[in-house]
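Q: Hi! First time doing this. I have a protein sequence and I read that you can turn it into a structure. Is that right? Here it is:
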Amino acid sequence: MPLFMMVCTDKPGALETRKANRAAHLDYIRDTGCVVQAGPLLDNAGDMAGSLIVLDLPDMAAATAWGMNDPYAMAGLFADVRLQEWKKVVG
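A: Yes, that's right. Below is the predicted 3D structure, encoded as structure tokens:
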């Protein structure tokens, strides 16, 4: 299966939205079983300000659907999302 990279940037001032939906987001990651790697992007103060997620899914449509159903996305956390096929070479 191909891998897909999601780079999500939080809306300014949305840290409380992120914190309020973090447990549901982590449950979604666990329950869907398609996340290879994930973690928050940090701002200069060290606060969570976005997400980097690598998905193992059959195609772009499945990756798009996964992203749209993420509790973070459903809560309106992100200002923008970049989704692109990714080829693992190292690691």
